[in-house]
Amino acid sequence: GSDGGVLDSHGGCPGGLVHVPPTPGAVRSFGSAKARYDFCARDRMELTLREGDIIRVLSKKGRPGWWKGEIYGQVGWFPANYVEEDYSEYC
């Protein structure tokens, strides 16, 4: 009798990522994005990116072609076409 290869019923993510429910009043996140190119911020409203950086996306509205995100505790705008969305956290 084969059991058909029972899969883990929890379907957990590799690496033991734990999804904590957002606390009330927390900034809604749109997931994360990975920088494909370097981008040098021109003012304090923008984020400096380095290729390979992972940015937490906070908003995709407000400036056409720009997203608002957070990296290393800094919040600012960056060009959406400089990043690729990272879906790995959704398993």
UniProtKB/TrEMBL annotation:
<protein>
    <submittedName>
        <fullName>VAV protein</fullName>
    </submittedName>
</protein>
<keyword id="KW-0728">SH3 domain</keyword>
<dbReference type="Pfam" id="PF00018">
    <property type="entry name" value="SH3_1"/>
</dbReference>
<dbReference type="GO" id="GO:0005737">
    <property type="term" value="C:cytoplasm"/>
</dbReference>
<dbReference type="InterPro" id="IPR036028">
    <property type="entry name" value="SH3-like_dom_sf"/>
</dbReference>
<dbReference type="GO" id="GO:0005085">
    <property type="term" value="F:guanyl-nucleotide exchange factor activity"/>
</dbReference>
<dbReference type="GO" id="GO:0016477">
    <property type="term" value="P:cell migration"/>
</dbReference>
<dbReference type="InterPro" id="IPR001452">
    <property type="entry name" value="SH3_domain"/>
</dbReference>
<feature type="domain" description="SH3">
    <location>
        <begin position="28"/>
        <end position="88"/>
    </location>
</feature>
